[in-house]
Amino acid sequence: MLTANTGGGSWNRNEKPQKSQRPLTPLTRGDLGHDGGYLLVNESEAGVCTVHVHLVQHGDSQWQHYIGFRDALRRDPKLRQRYSRLKRRLARQFPEDRESYTNSKTAFILEVLKEEA
Q: Which of 7, 31, 37, 47 has the largest CB neighbor count within 10 A?
């Protein structure tokens, strides 16, 4: 699965994205606010997500968190290795539960962001 984050200008949060004419037709999960921005997903089959795209406003606090975490991982090979091990362990622990997998990474991410501040 690919998870991508992208930033842009402001947009009308009440307007649903237009469906793509290509085979990749994202499904909107709506505005998650500070829990991830506007979420688009693609499913290979019903309930099997293959792509997550989080749209957040460039420069807002969610954007700063994404960039801060990314930069910390880029700078520190040991941190990348710890995060990779955590993700693999959680993938084994929650193979069918994406929400628990994601929520279980939160403490690690928040600790990294706290150290970055």
A: 37
Q: Is 55 exposed, middle or buried (0-12, 13-18, 19+ CB in 10 A)?
A: buried
Contacts of 109 by beta carbon, 8 Å cutoff, 6+ apart: 69
In what order do the strands lie in the sheet containing 38-45?
Answer: 2-8, 48-57, 38-45, 27-31
The reported pTM is: 0.69
pLDDT tens for each residue of 74-109? 999 999 999 999 999 999 999 988 889 989 999 999
38 φ/ψ angles, rounded to the nearest 5 degrees: -85, 125
Amino acid residing at 48 = V
d(CA 71, CA 18): 32
Q: Report d(CA 62, CA 60) in Å as an integer.
A: 6
Share of the chain above pLDDT 70, in %: 74
Sequence-distant (6+) residues with CB within 8 A of 5 are 37, 53, 54, 56, 66
